[in-house]
Structure prediction request, 296 residues.
Amino acid sequence: MLARMIAALLALAAPAAPAAAAAQRAPATVQLPRTILFIGNSFTQGAHSAVRNWHADRVTDLTGAGYGGVPALFKEFTVEAGLNYAVSLETQGGQSLAFHYDQRRQLFDRAWDVVVLQEYSTLDRDRPGDATRYIRSVGQLGTLLRVRNHAVRVELMATWSRADQVYQPGGPWFGKPVATMADELRVAADRARRTNRSVSGVIPVGQAWNRAFAAGVADPNPYDGIAFGQANLWSYDHYHASTAGYYLEALVVFGHVTGIDPRTLGRGERAAEELGLSPELAVALQAIAREQLAAR
Prediction:
């Protein structure tokens, strides 16, 4: 009798074994990465700095040029924060957003979760400070991107004051306070956002540079020497950013896009260490980025 009961119990248990094994073999649900695309020029590429080709293998350069740049810094910050982003860039030095729409849109005409647009440094090469073409290009790109994903976040990057345009005779902003050019670029970006409903926000990179000058973290005039204990945010041409300048740019983009406080990256942040920025400077720039993002 006991033997028959044991046999019956074993028979009942037998069908469950394959099911349990199948459950163990079933793959876990994989969360797809959020996609982000950077469209811009040398200010996105990280030109004239160690940032330009840094960890280019971690991002996708749609042009095949092999740049890492600010997108690679953004990628590193997201990895350190435990986020999953697939990062791409489409850039061309010295070009405007109109160029990307007119000649390169076939490279990025697909669905994206987030797109960061960075315009030419003076907005219009022939008419510095004129936002007319910028606003039109933002509208064209925003419309194109929303066709592929209506929920795409289109973010406009407002860039920094060029020292060569401020301190050298003949520049459109010559003789004006160093913060003026960046503030005017921000006004143009705000106009483009108000004009185009496809735009989600403005990334205040230029204002973060201004804040770094005001706080004494960075020297505001590279032409009269760099003060002891202050960083030079420009590269050797006083036009593009230095490694520190691009680092600050990427911090502001990271905080704006993800909503994470850049200060959480901390003294041990890996990109700063690999690129030769001191822990003290990295922390100072993280704090500047956070303060600017809070102020908008």
